[in-house]
Structure formats: C-alpha cells, structure tokens
Amino acid sequence: MNSRSGGRPRIAAAWIAGLLLGLSAWSAQAAPPAQRPIFVLNSLDADVSVIDPVSFQQVKRIPTGKEPHHLYLTPDNKSMIVANALGDSLTFIDPVTAEVQRTLRGIVDPYHLRFSPDMKWFVTAGNRLDHVDLYLWQPTNAEQPLKLVKRISAPKTPSHLAIDTRSSVVYVSLQDSNELLAVDLATQAVRWKVPVGQMPADIYLTPDDKHLLVALTGDKMVEVYEVGGLAQPRLVKRLPTGDGAHSFRAWGDKRHVLVSNRAANTISKIDFQALAVVDEFRAPGGPDDMEILPDGRTLIYTSRWARKLTMMDLQTKKVLQQVKVGKSPHGVWTLDHVSRQ
Prior knowledge:
The protein is mainly β.
C-alpha cells in the first residue's frame, strides 16, 4: 500500500517534468530569432556605428582603418569585411556579436569589394590608386586568406564592382574617366573598356546576367547596357531617376531595384524587366547605401549629408525614425535582410 501510494508522487513529478521540458522546447521553437545588429560605416570617422535594430539606437562604435566605405560578407556568413580604403586594411567583424575578429593589413586601397559566386575570387577596386586587384580566396590559410594574383591598371578612379553568376567576368565603373571596364577572371585580362555617361558609380547586374545598370552620379540618369553574350556592351536605354544617381539595392523579387539619387534627395524604383522607373520615394539628407529588412517593407539608408541612418516604410513612403551616426555615413548592412536579387 505504502509502496503504491509512494509511487504516485514520483509519477506525477516525472509527468510535470516532462510537461515543463516539452513547454520549454515549444517555447524555444516559437520564440522569434534574436535580431542581429545594423552596421553603418562612418567614412570620415574611421569607425562603424552599431545600431540596435529594436530600439534603433546606436549602442557602440567600432574603430577601423581610415575611410571605411564598403563592406561584404564572407562566404561562410561568419565575418563582415569592412574595406578601409585609406587604411590599406580589411576589418573582419562578427555580424552577430559585433566584435572585431581580426584586421588584415597590406590590402592596398580597398574601396569596393566583391566575392565571386564560386567563392574563388575576392576583388577590390582601388579608387584612389587606379587599380583593380584580383585575390584568390584561401579561407583555410589563417596567415594568408587572400593571395594577390593580378593587379590591373584601371584609370581613372575605379568605383564599384559587379561579378556575373558564372564567376567569369567582373565589371568595374571608372568614375573619373566616364568608362566601364570588364575583366576576364579566368585569364585576368581586360575584355573591353567603353565610354559611358558622367561619373559612373554603382553598377547592378540583373540576375540573368543580361543587363548592367550604371548609376551616373554626375547626371540624373541610370544607363542600361546589354552585356550578356556580347563581345562589346550595347547601350539599351537611359532612365531618368534624379540628380546624383548613385547606389543600387535589389528589391528582392528578381524584378525591381532601387537607386538612391543623392543630390535629388530621392530614391527611385526601377523595373529592370520593363526597363522603366515605376516609383519614387522622398529621402532627405543625401541618400546613399540602402538595406531592406526582412519584412520586405522597411528600408534603411544612410543619409550621407545629415550624418544619420534613416528608416522608411516603403508602403506609406514615410520616414519612421532617424538615428545620428558618424561623419559621412556610407555603407549600411545587417545580416537580417531580404534577398539581394
């Protein structure tokens, strides 16, 4: 009798423990994942602002080398690489914890940077020193993850890079000579160089590799070139957007892309299948680089002249919040974003 009654509390305790364990597991599955920080590169302060995505407040600043302009994620998603152009270095930052992992020095004048889709090549544009550097990516080599294979002369002022999906060609805008350059990655040789409009900056290659969009910061246009399968690019169309057309960010639907018009204080939405501008957003403070958050309707962009990061609702077209960051904020990025196609 005592034995039987004494077993009931043990059974009840075991049942309650099992229930609590199940509830704990369900709670862990049901809980939304923690949001990762937003990073803003302050080019003239030589540091990075870390923004809490919930409070939309700056929580710390990370010192880097001089003139951090652009950034890119490593293929394993474990490091955000900040290119310090005047510092001749790359700063590797954990995109989740916002802690500096390492600094790689001796990378000469890295202004813009890209990995090839096959993860073989790491390419930098030397904006100040007029060259494009092709590095082999060696992630298992802790001492030398980047091996310089070829330095290509690219006068004048190489600005932005785009690499096709086959990892066969890298396109480069030459800002101060008003040209577009194409480099064959297999041979490390120049395929062609052609004139374009005034002061080309960012370039966007459509997901099918057919068209290359070129933002003309010295104009109010985006030029569209057919490049896929052609020995020489062919100008297809010029799209009026706004003064100082500068930086692209894909909408995430493989059909639309945004371009920031820095001098016009606007952002244009382009349908790159129809080759037409289909919408416009007012964007105060000199809009520069952009990012779209996972909900697909929240845009964040650096307000270059206002020293702020701005949050906008793309459906209502209203500015939601702004947070003060450093001098001349340029690149912006977070691990939590929609597709870049």
